Hints:
4% of the residues lie in helices and 40% in strands. It has one helix spanning 214-222; strands spanning 6-10, 16-18, 23-25, 47-49, 59-61, 64-66, 75-81, 98-99, 107-115, 127-137, 145-151, 155-160, 168-169, 175-179, 186-196, 203-211, 228-231. The strands form 5 sheets. Strands 13-14-11-16-17 form a 5-stranded antiparallel sheet. A 4-stranded antiparallel sheet has the order 4-1-7-8, with no helix packed on it. A hairpin with a 5-residue loop joins strand 13 (168-169) and strand 14 (175-179). The chain is rod-shaped.
Amino acid sequence: xxxxxxxxxxxxxxxxxxxxxxxxxxxxxxxxxxxxxxxxxxxxxxxxxxxxxxxxxxxxxxxxxxxxxxxxxxxxxxxxxxxxxxxxxxxxxxxxxxxxxxxxxxxxxxxxxxxxxxxxxxxxxxxxxxxxxxxxxxxxxxxxxxxxxxxxxxxxxxxxxxxxxxxxxxxxxxxxxxxxxxxxxxxxxxxxxxxxxxxxxxxxxxxxxxxxxxxxxxxxxxxxxxxxxxxx
Length: 232
């Protein structure tokens, strides 16, 4: 049984903050001192387990929020007291637990298709349907993902499809479609139409430019955005 309070100091990594006060389960102690445990901020100090904790396992759960600025969740808690002379405020002791926690970042990839397909001859007055598809993997997005699609000479914007698939889009060229922060991993598609006009010469084209974080820019280094060309 502990003969003194056990102070728990857990300095949270950059981008990680408390989302509520720590809670305790197990043992016969009166638990974590409620008045001493912060419910916000970046450290659990001066939270403590009261004197008289029984022999056994006591679990202290620390709820947190993870911001986009977090790079990892690695941290070490410092335990001080409890009556154990080897458990002091000094760091790196046997009673100071360390846990590695990787932070998963979202990856957004973007693809574009056309119907009729690129390279297919089209005539003035014909309608082309373009489809933009964003695939979110690993984790929910932490920034707004934006697709900007500018129609080339000889194309007149028609309309956004009836089901924009999670996107919010305008209705004019350049077409700007966004997925909000917190978009969960999945595949999202939006289609729009464009009509070939008399201003078209030997071909018509347009390209989509994604923004919204380094993952989008990385994608377009590996898979460069290529215009969709249709010959007349």
